[in-house]
Write a structure and sequence with these properties.
The protein is built from four helices and ten strands. The strands form three sheets. The chain has a four-stranded mixed sheet, with helices on one face. Helix content is about 35%, strand content about 30%. By secondary structure, the protein is α+β, with helices and mostly antiparallel strands. The radius of gyration is 16 Å and the shape is globular. Strand 8 and strand 9 form a beta hairpin. Helix 1 packs parallel to helix 4 and helix 2 packs parallel to helix 3. This is Imidazoleglycerol-phosphate dehydratase. It catalyses: D-erythro-1-(imidazol-4-yl)glycerol 3-phosphate = 3-(imidazol-4-yl)-2-oxopropyl phosphate + H2O. Keywords: Amino-acid biosynthesis, Cytoplasm, Histidine biosynthesis, Lyase. Its EC number is 4.2.1.19. One of its GO terms (molecular function) is imidazoleglycerol-phosphate dehydratase activity.
């Protein structure tokens, strides 16, 4: 089925998330953090997954709990929806140009969670979104989906373009990695994907 959904509740956030890896890029995003909604919409479109995210979060504190907890929930649902990972491509790479910015995302659906994040984003805030939360979001996704994820802004100067480039590049590289190759094999010489 390659679908998953969760209701995740803490003292800081209440999240309802639905994911369909065989989607068409449709999204319904309401996190209470406008810029983050925009980024998740772009991620869904470029990864060609259907994604619904509804959040009640303590945004009067700041957006940190909302952004990180959505990353946790999304990562967990990616892992669940992938199931045994038989027949997926496993690896994905995307270079994403956005005007003066070039972003790169390389992902391995390996079962070995790791994040390398290299982006010198100058502007500390984009709307209601602290730009340092981009790394927190991607770390939460990578750790909980058990992805090896390398994200980098190779060059750029506009902070909006840099963050947007990373979300789009991640979506495109993930789409490639979770794409099905028509085989009935596990994409690993070990006979299993770690995790």
């Amino acid at each position: 089925m390659r679908t998953a959904e969760t209701k995740r509740e803490t003292k800081e956030t209440k999240i309802e998330l639905k994911l369909d890896l065989n989607g068409t890029g449709q999204s319904d995003i309401q996190t209470g953090v406008g810029f983050f909604d925009h980024m998740l919409t772009l991620f869904a479109f470029h990864s060609q997954v259907d994604l619904s995210v509804q959040v009640e979060g303590d945004t009067w504190v700041d957006a940190h709990h909302t952004v990180e907890d959505v990353g946790i929930a999304l990562g967990q649902m990616i892992l669940e929806a992938l199931g045994d990972k038989v027949g997926i491509r496993r690896y994905g790479t995307s270079y994403l140009p956005m005007d003066e910015t070039l972003a790169r995302s390389v992902v391995d659906v390996s079962g070995r969670p790791f994040l390398v994040f290299n982006a010198d984003i100058k502007n500390p805030k984009l709307g209601d979104f602290d730009t340092e939360l981009a790394e927190e979001f991607f770390r939460a996704v990578a750790m909980n989906a058990r992805l090896t994820l390398h994200l980098e802004v190779l060059y750029g100067s506009n902070s909006h373009h840099m963050v947007e480039g990373l979300f789009k590049a991640f979506g495109r590289s993930l789409a490639e990695a979770i794409g099905q190759d028509g085989s009935n094999r596990l994409p690993s010489t070990k006979g299993r994907i770690e995790g």
